[in-house]
Design a protein that fits this description.
Largest interface: A-B, 33 and 34 residues
CATH topology of the largest domain in chain A: Tetracycline Repressor, domain 2
Pfam families (chains A, B, C, D): TetR_C_43, TetR_N
CATH class of the largest domain in chain A: Mainly Alpha
Number of strands of chain A: 0
CATH architecture of the largest domain in chain A: Orthogonal Bundle
Structural class of chain A: mainly alpha
CATH superfamily of the largest domain in chain A: Tetracycline Repressor, domain 2
Oligomer: homotetramer
GO molecular function, one term (chains A, B, C, D): transcription cis-regulatory region binding
Number of domains of chain A: 2
Distance between the termini of chain A: 59 Å
Keywords (chains A, B, C, D): DNA-binding, Transcription, Transcription regulation
InterPro entries (chains A, B, C, D): Homeodomain-like_sf (IPR009057), HTH-type_TetR-like_transc_reg (IPR050109), HTH_TetR (IPR001647), Tet_transcr_reg_TetR-rel_C_sf (IPR036271), TetR_SbtR-like_C (IPR049445)
Protein name (chains A, B, C, D): TetR family transcriptional regulator
Strand content of chain A: under 5%
Order of helices and strands of chain A: HHHHHHHHH
DNA sequence: GATGAATGAGCCTTCATTCAT
DNA sequence: AATGAATGAAGGCTCATTCAT
């Protein structure tokens, strides 16, 4: 009937899925990704069964919550490489974006530290999507002589991930950005 | 009354405390700092009530478990400053020591990420004891012109702590030491 | 209105009912008669609401599933009485048929043990349909002097039913047929 | 201190274990062996955790509930063989005892039909304890020429078990004893 | 002081059943 | 009529914590 159609029935199902994603995102921030299923359901205003229908395992929910943002972050890579004044500027900007995503937005980083078994999926989402993006930027920067250290995109992205994960324990005296900047400086020479 | 006196009763109390510390240290490594109280008691061969008598809260136990090692790490600072070939060498060595402590030995870092509320005590132990030590080394290095970046000991110690915490998710392709080295390089220039 | 008419709509309703019966029969075998409604619906390729429309209670479904076979078993009685070499041979053959039905085919026997309240309907189906059949055979055998024990058809059919029900816990060392044979022997003298 | 002592502490623990066994026996009769843990705990007047402490798995509880009675039944075998007027009389009496145990006392038989996986333990308890007893009686009867059919003790005990299990669906028109008698008659000739 | 039995809140998960579409 | 999404009661299990012995 229209460009938005996805079968009549799915109207409320989609509404619920959306509500669940929003609720989960919000609850993850305050209570962590191990938050009780009940709380997420309550926050979303749905029954618990509805969570299990849409996201059979907790990992499914977590991945879904963050997928959009990971995608956005990935897509920004090539763009920045085109618009920044230099590859290293693109590197700085993309790393900032990634750090923003990690630190500011959703408490995602904590997700990766708890339950490392179950969250392989999340880990994979990250790595699969973002490592190639950073690899391109890094490669450009290296070709321009702006990065000399022998460091892989994987190594770098994990370092940044861990730094931001730790920074969630907020303390005005600690500035994750500064740490990241020092790290990038260390890559340059 | 005297400094050495500790009534007969105290003898097994002390034995128990020691047993609990050892047991907790061991269980923390395998099961994490959130390990069931029962398991720790069982490992120590004491009743659960005994844990609560000696360490009313989990944080008390965690702090006690790591205090010795934190002390050892702190005491190594001045020593290294005296024996190393340069302040920056001392910095490198001490940071390695600290990272060893964090990474290799005890899964301590994870402790700081979980339950950040309850582990203020642990956090404080770290900061109170180790920040001054690193500050001295850092200051010496700065005086020698070997560190130029505007970075505080607190900033640095947290950065290293977070990096090591993240590195507990073991992966041969990731090398926390390399990250730390790059970070220190970034401090030098 | 006519005896053959069943408006067009009824066509797929019937198809669905058939599909449900087949699906239920199949699922009952593998998962027992307490199988989740959802699984039956899925197996039949219909929605769950459709099950409830056609078979408001689980008992309705169970009864419907087995009615055909019970009928077939009932109809075999008079036939066997006509073809067998003696009434007691007919008895043996019919009891074998019944045991086959119970044991081999469908796990039906278990149905009668679980939820005895809700399965009165199933129980009734059995008794109403099969007891008279067995009664006739038994009576013929008694008249021929081939059964002397004072045992009713109901008593006998329940005994066989229970024996087969128990035999569903498969064990090569146990042979329900042997038990039934001994029981019939005991009826003869 | 005394012949009843089993360490001071266990006083209430034992009281609880006893209460649990009684409660479970009673609840098993009315609700079956799949009765909710919560209900058993409530009936016993203890917390749920107490059940899990004493009987980690449901099978443990079920076995414990019935062990006494199985023992009593087993011990009656040799006795009856000594006191009965003939081996076949002993057989009849022991089988009656066993059937009493199964039918009248505790709904145990149902236990063996549900959850056949988890109740291997119960099954084993039965077989290990009772089959040898029946085997002795059967052997005596066979030696006396009072049993001629080629039937094993295991075959017989399972047959009786299944018959009694089925008889729990009470119906005045059905008499499990009669079925068993016919079965024994069938063994004799 | 030490013990460990008991408690019970809290979480996860499954499914029968309803009902909006 | 059919669908299948949603609901929520029900039950299993784990552990932190208390307290009688």
């Amino acid at each position: 009937m229209s460009t938005t159609a996805n079968s009549a029935k799915r109207a409320d199902a989609r509404r619920n899925e959306r509500a669940l994603l929003d609720a989960a995102a919000s609850v993850f921030v305050t209570d962590g990704v191990d938050a009780p299923v009940r709380r997420i359901a309550a926050e979303a205003g749905v029954g618990m069964g509805t969570i299990y229908r849409h996201f059979p395992s907790r990992a499914d929910l977590v991945v879904a919550v963050y997928r959009h943002q990971v995608d956005a972050c990935a897509e920004a890579g090539p763009t920045l490489l085109g618009t920044a004044t230099s590859p290293s500027a693109a590197l700085r900007q993309w790393v900032d974006l990634f750090a923003d995503f990690l630190t500011t937005k959703h408490g995602l980083a904590a997700a990766m530290r708890n339950d490392p078994d179950g969250f392989t999926a999340l880990h994979a989402l990250f790595l699969d999507r973002l490592v190639p993006v950073l690899a391109d930027i890094l490669s450009a920067a290296r070709n321009a002589g702006e990065v000399t250290a022998d460091v892989s995109a994987y190594q770098l992205i994990r370092a940044i991930g861990d730094i931001c994960a730790g920074a969630e324990l907020v303390d005005p005296a600690y500035d994750a950005r500064l740490t990241i900047r020092l790290l990038l400086d260390g890559c340059r020479r």
